[in-house]
Protein: chitinase
Amino acid sequence: MGYINPFTSEIKYLQILTITTTIFVVAAGTRVLGQDCGCSPDLCCSQYGYCGTSDDYCGRGCQEGPCLSPPSSNGVSVEDIVTDTFFNGITDQATGSCPGKGFYTRETFLDALGSYPEFGTIGSTDDSKREIAAFFAHVAHETGHMCYIEEINGTMRDYCDKTTSSQYPCVSGKGYYGRGPMQLSWNFNYGPAGSSIGFDGLSNPEIVATNSTISFSTALWFWMNYCHDAFTSGQGFGATIRAINGALECNGGNSDNVSARVEYYTQYCNQLQVDPGNNLTC
Structure:
């Protein structure tokens, strides 16, 4: 139970209330024109269907309008960094009876990675290693070294947020509790994650616990939308803790959990022979 925080997605609830202002985008370059999304031609249509001109609208996920092009890749191969030795070094710490044994594999992680080319490829080679270490640090903490697929006692909790049910309506009999490497939770995360990845997150949330590639895709989706830009902009590992579970862990909320996440991160940085950088806590 210590590995799966049943309140992990509380911060995600807070984020959805200000979704158009909390996703930070690091983007530069030429603008691409095109519009038939309901916004005027000089406005961007964000990934959530809102019109505006800031990076929140014109950056990551921008659908139409003067969208910003993504930052240039550094050419790093994530596959070469996330080796069998690195990946199995995490999963091997889970006991043989763990439900995640055989479910979470390096192959399905790499399959999911194909849809997220910016992950681990922004900045210097050391920046890439740090982002990879940060991602897997949270995965290890959330799932007990990829032991758990579903949140313990998740079926006993109500993850249907009524304030977002008009946009992401909860389906009767479906549970939106934590599943997958990042323990995706709440209807307002299952809905857009499914739309982005290509599954019905509201009617079929269970697929996150039965299809390993989709499961890893939801973790990468959440990371790229809520953690990637903060981390690659130099805010440090602490910013990713705040994005994932800051409402409960940061500012003294649960210093033990923060320390555990930082320990995983520094351990994986050491394995990848990279300095973990500054601002590790929150």
In short: The mean pLDDT is 86. The CA atoms of residues 187 and 201 lie 8 Å apart. The longest strand covers residues 31-32.
